[in-house]
Amino acid sequence: MTSAMTTSPLSRRQLLKRLGAVGATGAAAPWLMNLAALAPAHATTTTGYKALVCLYLYGGNDAYNTVLATDPASWAAYLAARNADTNHVALAAPGTVAVKGTASYNAGLGGVLPITPRTPQGRTFALHPQLATVRDLFAAGRVAVVANVGPLMKPTTKADVIANTATLPPKLFSHNDQESVWQSMHAEGSTVGWGGAMVDRLAAANAHGLFTSISTGSNAVWLAGNTVRPYSLGLGGAIHLGSPDGTLFSSAVAQQALVAMARSTREAQYFEQDHAAVVGRSIDAEALLAPAMPAAGAGPWGTAGVAVGAIDPLLTYKNVDTGAATLNPITQQLQVVARMIAAHSSLGMGRQVFFIGVEGFDTHSSQNERHADLMAQLAQALGYWDQVTRSMGVDQSVTTFTASDFGRAFASNGDGTDHGWGGHHFVMGGAVKGGDVYGAFPAYGLTDAMNGFTSADQLDDGSLLPAISVEQYAATLGAWMGLSGPDLTAVLPNLSSWSQPAWNLGFI
Q1: Who has the most CB within 10 Å: 356, 364, 441, 457?
Q2: HSE-up of 125 (CA within 13 Å, CB side)?
Q3: What is this structure's pTM?
Q4: Which residues are within 8 A (CB) of 156 and not within 5 positions of it... i.e. 6 or more apart?
Q5: Coil, helix or strand for 504?
């Protein structure tokens, strides 16, 4: 595995920076002062700018209806599993013309969209009918598919699972736990994620540690490191205390008093002190970020002249059911990430990670309608992001990838699908070797007498047994960010269960 980094011991300056990052938590958190927080064993120096953007699909995306095998044997098995109920979840065959108002909702979407991977694996493939933009990006070599990814402790076969000899990830099929396992390699309660742990080791590249790990909504464990703490951006940019003009009730004095109260404590209570430290950190961050971060209409990420409060047409997608232009929550979040990336030079940032949460993928019911609209949102957002990053000249420096709690079952539950395990994911960016499917695409089987499936890749209800671990997926991204082999095994505790050539999946 090649790496763009060199290793070196921590300098005095780097050590003080890490101590300062821990100190920002306030006196209420002395437990953070431990050897792991002070210095990873393989500190690095880096050059240039790179960022990872995680699009996390909360609820468990139905990978079977996102990327499909369409060769005759696969399609027959797909229809057998997903076309068995009145309101079936099977999509229409390639070439089906969309006709609204038909008895089948999915027939009204039109057929699945064929793609031609550079390595066809002796099969044919397609995408959901609403992913036309992603199909075009795939054809242009800007999007890759990574097949059948999921949490694994070590390489695992179906025979291992059936014999109860497999070492399985904790609490499979549980939303909260699998969100945490995907993001941190541990069940719910984990406090350090692999995104944050990676940039812990790359912190020397950044002048302002505050802006290393960034969320556009609620915090996610993926962003948290031992020293790096997530920073939350609002959709409008830096979160401000008081009025945007620096006053409170038109008074600068009142604003200053408010800030002073927010920073202070009346009693020596840990929670009060910690709250004051967090608020103070936010105030300091906003003071640095506000003058550096360009306005929403100042670059390719927005339309100049859009009135305050109006919806920018660049941030809308076509609602599948109404046909109306509708505000896209994914694109809204990507816009503020673009503005943050535009400020990286003035802020002195060399490495950053961003987390965008996308809700709604737990499609136990009404899957046809709900999943189609989610795919429309995802397609518009990725098309927007490709255009914006290229226009900004940072597409080679920004890699975007999807993640989700789990995939879903192959079998329909009536008008939806239940929780699964493995799933397929998209990776996008100028550095990505797009236009191909990475990893062996799973075989689709038929149901057997025990509610299982005949394929070696499918378990009960057709849940996919992952062939690629989250840690291999993460290691490939981490190596691109500049992490060495020892850094990767420190961040990803189960990675050494795979041979080193398997650490890099080759998609970037």
Answers
A1: 356
A2: 28
A3: 0.86
A4: 166, 167, 168, 465, 466
A5: coil
